[in-house]
Recover the amino acids of this structure.
């Protein structure tokens, strides 16, 4: 989807908000800490990482640009819970479901730290097909994407690059956002800045993206 | 279970846009109340997560990894070969580091990490990402004009140094290994770790200084 | 500039706001009528149509998406007056300059209708150079633009199309936005929808854009 | 005189973003006050402009042009050849119609006008553009999915009809000439003009109906 989330290379933004944007976790707003913790503790049945990301992509575009980061997460969790039928829009409006299930167990700090360690999930999947490309090979990215959710940004469409690394087969986000589990070969692909941005770019510079095989054709 | 229906998601978001108050603190409070009532989270558990990221999981972890890569050449090799595996030696494996890649700065190359499509970040070794990393400004500009972005962070790169921008479009996460500053030859790992800034591990800081230690 | 104003083909927006968006001039909000009239009557020294448009393009991106149309014009007029030194930011904050020049003459309805008729300005300029392309010729648009202000939208970059009409030489917006007066040949260029959007588009459909010669290369 | 400095413009806009109230009516009031004080406009003059566009300049003009193109084949030829010139026969020349192009719907072609980069519109013959024409939704979608957009306006096109979208990227403005509906053979120009909707001249309406007259 050519959505507002696809920000790479968009011009017209001002200075990087470094001042006030450099706080440690302990010093950010309480609601932001709370949202981080909610995200960490909450499981919403069947939600894949790609459906989560696509959910944020479908936010109202003006909100996407103006909301603080964790405010987007909040909107997205509400959307996910509504979509799953866990809560209703009426609940959201009232701020309460009106009843209360059995309370969730409270993890201790030790539990949390153990959970963090166990969260180093692998996205690699077995693959029968051999990779189509080898490191060093030139490739071209697709000019058009036919997918609601894709991880081939608009700025890197229809551009020639070079395979830097092959990472085996990883879950394809385009499928994951549909709740389907399918892997294809993943590569790091290196692009010259001048091929992406034209002659204004510095010829010494490169941008490397991690791209799945269906995004690529031989150059 | 999710509908996985893109249009339905957009419509729900438009309804939320209409019905919710604009104050983010109120919105998050609403989400917390509903999630507690549905038994999805517990307030005490949320406190434990906040404590974990305030006190335990943070950029000091990355700094320790970098410091060891400076003092232990064999560790550095393991880190460059498979960073996800190498950080297990510290017990730092975890959220968003199942596929971690370490990239090293040199005299002629500078690495800069961004996620243009969302804000991917290696949480378990760097903690929460800074707000600027998640800003639309950084996401839009880092891939197109990295040298101007670096200049805003006080990093002025000569033309002799190439910039390698890494846009985290998949589940690989990146850790920049900054260069070890001169004058730290006899320092131990802890003292070295103290001068490794978070930003240097993202790439928005380059020249670490011995004095800072 | 690859700015937020360049909306063609951006996905993620909802239904067209037809309801409530169909009012006649007489029925829109009073402040909107007022803004239209301000735009009609006010001359800001030296402002070209292209500098005006580029001014709107440089709005804060989140405002660009969320502001009503005439609210953007309002922001832009304030910017233009500030840039020209006619007013100061302090004046804007106070809502008054604190003093008052000689009042402007008030046109009558008759004056206004005469002004409307005289406003059919031509943007054509003389041109010594013959046109590079002829109707029916295939052309390709540039993949990268080196200009703050351009009228080659992002969705039509690096795409092949066909010259439909040659309109003579017209003022080039890229130069006009810099206050410079320069014309180049202007063409209507027809693109197949499938060349712009891929195979999801209907092969019967086309999109035609009016593009200046510097935006085009032979296909 | 203007600076023609793009970065300065952006910085001024960011300052305005910070300093101005959010209510558009208040903002426009501020602009009007400042412009009046600087002698750039007069309140009575603004009233005259509002009256002109409320009562005189509007889509009825375009409808008259279309009606004549239906009844007078020679006028239709002149209109298709040079619409800027042809509308002078009515005294309708003016704002944003110095370069006007008329495009005709047929059994197999439908025309749709949009301006993706801003909101260009032929003011002197169609008056003020409708709010939806200036909406981000219309500007984004009309070029990419014109058939879905048309369906939202109640126009369902069969595959046998091609859509020709015109994106007004230069100073050419466009006027769609809709098809004359059956059953109006003996109608005069005024009666015909009454059934030509504004939207049909933009292309978001297609099948005009004799009943409406």
């Amino acid at each position: 989807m050519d959505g507002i989330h696809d920000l790479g290379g968009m011009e017209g933004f001002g200075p990087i908000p470094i001042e006030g944007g450099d706080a440690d976790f302990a010093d950010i707003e309480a609601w932001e800490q709370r949202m981080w913790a909610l995200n960490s503790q909450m499981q919403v049945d069947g939600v894949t990482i790609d459906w989560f990301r696509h959910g944020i992509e479908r936010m109202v575009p003006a909100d996407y640009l103006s909301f603080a980061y964790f405010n987007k997460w909040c909107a997205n969790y509400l959307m996910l819970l509504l979509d799953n039928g866990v809560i209703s829009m009426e609940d959201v409006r009232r701020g309460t479901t009106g009843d209360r299930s059995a309370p969730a167990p409270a993890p201790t700090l030790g539990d949390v730290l153990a959970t963090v360690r166990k969260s180093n999930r692998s996205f690699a999947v077995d693959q029968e097909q051999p990779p189509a490309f080898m490191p060093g090979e030139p490739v071209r990215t697709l000019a058009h994407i036919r997918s609601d959710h894709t991880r081939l940004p608009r700025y890197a469409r229809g551009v020639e690059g070079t395979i830097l690394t092959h990472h085996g087969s990883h879950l394809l986000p385009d499928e994951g956002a549909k709740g389907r589990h399918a892997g294809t070969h993943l590569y790091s692909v290196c692009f010259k800045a001048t091929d992406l941005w034209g002659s204004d770019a510095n010829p010494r510079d490169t941008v490397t993206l991690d791209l799945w095989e269906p995004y690529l054709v031989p150059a | 279970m999710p509908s996985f229906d893109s249009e339905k998601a957009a419509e729900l978001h438009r309804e939320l846009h209409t019905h919710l108050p604009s104050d983010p603190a109120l919105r998050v409070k609403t989400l917390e109340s509903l999630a507690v009532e549905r038994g999805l989270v517990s307030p005490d558990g949320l406190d434990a997560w906040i404590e974990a990221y305030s006190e335990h999981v943070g950029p000091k972890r990355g700094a320790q990894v970098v410091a060891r890569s400076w003092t232990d050449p064999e560790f550095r090799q393991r880190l460059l070969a498979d960073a996800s595996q190498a950080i297990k030696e510290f017990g730092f494996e975890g959220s968003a580091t199942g596929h971690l890649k370490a990239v090293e700065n040199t005299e002629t190359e500078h690495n800069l990490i961004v996620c243009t499509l969302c804000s991917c970040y290696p949480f378990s070794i760097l903690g929460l990402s800074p707000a600027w990393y998640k800003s639309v400004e950084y996401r839009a500009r880092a891939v197109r004009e990295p040298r101007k972005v670096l200049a805003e962070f006080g990093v002025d790169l000569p033309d002799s140094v190439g910039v390698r921008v890494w846009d985290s479009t998949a589940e690989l996460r990146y850790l920049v290994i900054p260069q070890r500053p001169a004058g730290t030859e006899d320092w131990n790992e802890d003292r070295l770790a103290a001068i490794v800034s978070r930003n240097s591990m993202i790439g928005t800081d380059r020249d670490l200084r011995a004095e800072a230690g």
User: Anything to note?
Assistant: The beta strands of chain C are 138-141, 160-171, 183-192, 206-212, 216-218. Helices of chain C lie at 30-41, 49-57, 61-66, 69-83, 89-94, 109-118, 173-176, 193-197.
